């Protein structure tokens, strides 16, 4: 199976927390009240991005949204489909409380492309501020860490899109900024893990925010390892055991409000992964 479309570079600026508090990702029922005094429910949020939500929670139409990576050819969602999984994550941007809702409205279980709407709401009055498609692959969810505090009152959101087959797993991690109440792509990272007779090949990213709390730099590393076992594979060629870590640092450019990225840092790993697909 092919991996989902991704950015030309393996990785731009992406960060997970150096020390991360509980992410507070939840998977509520639609009629569950929202935190605070808005008087709204999760269903009220969903209806702002699914105006055609019908009885039985069937989606007839979704609010048109852009893909966060700017891809004009991103897949459209299926109509007349059951409502997908809904997740919530409280965040902050500009020192203000916000609420993120992620709806994984997978377009087709047979296609590596997916469709997942990430919507940003004002946590006080449940008002929709922005929404974008953040799917790179068949299934999309908040990453286990959920968010990263990159400055006082400013979070970066972390998502994971993936699909797998009998021996390969395709993962795309994404970091999304929220400054100005606008969902923007900071960067994405594609990893490929597989297993075969006598070996398991894994790629595990680790991420650290370093430096002053007002503007943290980002240390990004990928541990690429091959472990062998004692299985008898006859004359089948087995990759040699190895373990290596590839790392680089992105620094925050306060003037231009972006991270400075070395596009060549993971170039070799990207080419190797392309050969393994």
Care to describe what's here?
This protein has 277 residues and is mainly beta. It has one domain (42-276). Helix content is 6%, strand content 45%. The protein is built from two helices and 16 strands. The protein has helices at residues 42-49, 267-276, and strands at 53-54, 58-59, 66-67, 81-82, 86-93, 96-104, 116-122, 128-133, 139-151, 154-164, 168-177, 184-196, 199-210, 217-228, 242-253, 258-260. The protein has an eight-stranded antiparallel sheet, covered by helices on one side. A five-stranded mixed sheet has the order 3-8-7-6-5, with helices on one face. The chain is globular and about 65 Å long. The relative contact order is 0.17. Residues 1-22 have low confidence and may be disordered.
Helical coverage, percent range: under 10%
Task: Report the strand count.
Answer: 16
Largest sheet strand order: 9-10-11-12-13-14-15-16
Q: List segments where confidence is low: pLDDT < 50 over at least 5 consecutive residues.
A: 1-22
Radius of gyration: 20 Å
**How many alpha or pi helices?**
2
N→C terminal distance = 8 Å
Give the averaged pLDDT, no decimals: 84
H/E series, N to C? HEEEEEEEEEEEEEEEEH
Biggest sheet character: 8 strands, antiparallel
The amount of beta strand, in percent, is 35-45%
Structural class: mainly beta
The domain tally reads 1
| Shape by Cα distribution | globular
């Amino acid at each position: 199976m092919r991996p989902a479309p991704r950015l030309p570079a393996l990785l731009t600026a992406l960060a997970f927390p150096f020390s991360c508090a509980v992410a507070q990702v939840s998977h509520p029922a639609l009629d569950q009240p929202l935190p605070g005094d808005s008087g709204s429910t999760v269903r009220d949020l969903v209806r702002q991005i699914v105006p055609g939500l019908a009885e039985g929670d069937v989606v007839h139409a979704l609010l048109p949204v852009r893909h966060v990576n700017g891809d004009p050819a991103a897949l459209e969602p299926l109509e007349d489909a059951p409502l997908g999984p809904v997740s919530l994550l409280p965040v902050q941007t500009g020192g203000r409380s916000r609420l993120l809702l992620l709806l994984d409205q997978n377009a087709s279980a047979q296609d590596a492309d997916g469709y997942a709407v990430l919507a940003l709401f004002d946590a006080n009055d449940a008002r929709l501020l922005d929404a974008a498609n953040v799917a790179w692959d068949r299934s999309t969810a908040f990453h286990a860490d959920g968010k990263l505090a990159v400055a006082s009152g400013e979070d970066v959101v972390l998502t994971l899109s993936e699909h797998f087959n009998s021996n390969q797993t395709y993962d795309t991690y994404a970091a999304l900024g929220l400054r100005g109440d606008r969902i923007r792509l900071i960067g994405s990272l594609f990893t490929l893990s597989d297993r075969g007779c006598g070996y398991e090949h894994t790629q595990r990213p680790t991420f650290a925010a370093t430096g002053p709390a007002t503007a943290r730099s980002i240390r990004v590393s990928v541990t690429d390892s091959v472990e062998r076992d004692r299985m008898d594979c006859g004359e089948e060629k087995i990759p040699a055991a190895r373990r290596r870590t590839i790392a680089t640092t992105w620094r925050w450019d306060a003037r231009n409000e972006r991270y400075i990225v070395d596009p060549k840092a993971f170039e070799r790993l990207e080419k190797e992964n392309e050969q393994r697909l």
